[in-house]
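forwarding from the other thread:

> can someone predict this with adenosine-5'-triphosphate?

sure thing
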Amino acid sequence: MDKVIKFNDVSFGYEDKVILDNINLNINKGDYIGIIGQNGVGKSTLLKLMINKLKPVKGSIDLLNKNINNFDEWNKIGYVDQKSNSFSSSFPITVEEVVSLSLVSKVGLFKRVSKKYKKEVDEVLKLVGMYEYKDRLIGSLSGGQQQKVFIARELVKSPEILFLDEPTVGIDVNGQKEFYKILKELNEKLNLTIIIVSHDLFIVKEEVKKLALIKNKK
Ligand SMILES: Nc1ncnc2c1ncn2[C@@H]1O[C@H](COP(=O)(O)OP(=O)(O)OP(=O)(O)O)[C@@H](O)[C@H]1O
């Protein structure tokens, strides 16, 4: 099995307070994992360690077979959190433009997005069921629809891993169901590795292939 994330004896704390103590974990390509646990137990902290937003105080982390300190292929990493959804309704940018912005590293700033890239944008919008909304202003969409667009924005980079931190907060039950349906398809059809943090055990346990529970700093 290809390992995409490996934690070697990782500990982390904020100031003097230990949050995670000596964690060892392996995540394989194609895994779909839910990180669960009570409020404040360290779920977001664990995810932030995985994407180098936080550094361990002890131990080491490998991301896509590279020590995370030397990792530089961030275009292979997708990340969506609950705050992705922060465009005000008057912000004049369309769904298509939001997704295209992710291609800046490939296309270059101020260059016109070529036909090839436009097609890629169309394809990811179709994957998340938002193609027919491509000319709508992002701020005019519901929270659930916006989150799907933010998934598309990450998918257009063709990531190897998609990290999600409480992505369905504030979204109604039907919106959540649709959202999880898309994640399942991405995992099954594209073999995309998905790691999702949620405090909603009852939904997540029905959806993911594996659960990781944080309890007592372990
Ligand atoms: N920047 C910070 N400085 C100090 N303490 C922090 C910081 N961020 C988080 N904490 C504390 O670390 C602990 C773990 O926080 P974290 O956000 O990882 O928990 P969580 O399991 O994701 O919580 P929730 O389910 O409420 O989102 C909490 O006790 C939190 O108060």
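Residues 14, 19, 37, 39-45, 199 surround adenosine-5'-triphosphate (CB under 6 Å). thats all i got for now
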